[in-house]
Amino acid sequence: MFLLVASVLAADPSAPHPHKGVVTPYTSAPPPVSLSSADLATLSTGKVVLKQQQVASGGRGVVVVNINATPTRIWSKIVDYAHYPKMVDKVAECGNYRVSGNEMYTRFLLNVMGADVEYYIHHSYHPEASYLTWTLDYSRKSDLDDSVGYWRVTPLTTEPALSRLEYSVDIRFTGYVPGFIQDAISKKGLTDATSWVKRESEL
Q1: Which of 87, 71, 90, 97 is nearest to 162 (CA)?
Q2: For residue 91, what is the DSSP state?
Q3: Tens digit of pLDDT for each residue in 156-177?
């Protein structure tokens, strides 16, 4: 079964992606997440808050969590792609293949239940505005059909250091990615993503 999956997935850095995007990308800072007094109370306990964010293409899930660290430390973990295999579950290989100013192009190789899923991401990093957005790098063929999302880090207090992290991702799968792999990548994806950042930042 796993050998069959591996033979079907078809990421190729020498070929363009079949399209230039099917999910509406972020072209500027993502809209702020509205938090109620109940949400703020939940965040103060160290738990995550899941919200639905309305965008042009519909709705996207957003997870928010407070982290006991400075924005600088949190960003140092988020953009440390070379060390993702040590920090992030399912990431077997990762690293930038091109960097141009605030634009970072990164290869990801996930190992999911014995099968590899490879894709190429174009990150647009804006630390001065406290956010990073991404899409697929459509000049390369990925095993994912599309991926669009963002990170945002907002400082709350300095002594002790406390910051708020927002994360959102919209992943679309190609028809040849089996359902069990889709479930493994998507299941708990939002909360898992912020969990590792919180863990590594607070070490």
Answers
A1: 71
A2: E
A3: 999 999 999 999 999 888 877 7
CATH of 2-24+48-202, one of 3.40.50.150, 3.30.530.20, 3.40.50.720, 3.40.640.10: 3.30.530.20
Q: By C-alpha distance, which of 86, 92, 89, 72 is closest to 153?
A: 72
Tell which residue, 163, 156, 133, has the closest CA to residue 31.
133
Calpha distance 171→119 (Å, rounded) = 12
Angle, alpha carbons 189-191-197 (nearest 5°)? 105
Contact present, 43 and 162 (Cβ < 8 Å): no
| Length of the chain as a residue count | 203
Give dist(CA 182, CA 166) in Å, integer. 23
Beta bridge partners, 146, equal: 172
Environment class of 92 (CB within 10 Å of its CB; exposed 0-12, middle 13-18, buried 19+): middle
Instruction: Tell me, yes or no, if the pTM score tops 0.85.
Output: yes
The answer to whether residue 57 scores a pLDDT higher than 50 is: no
Predicted confidence at residue 51, as pLDDT, reads 84
pLDDT for position 181: 80
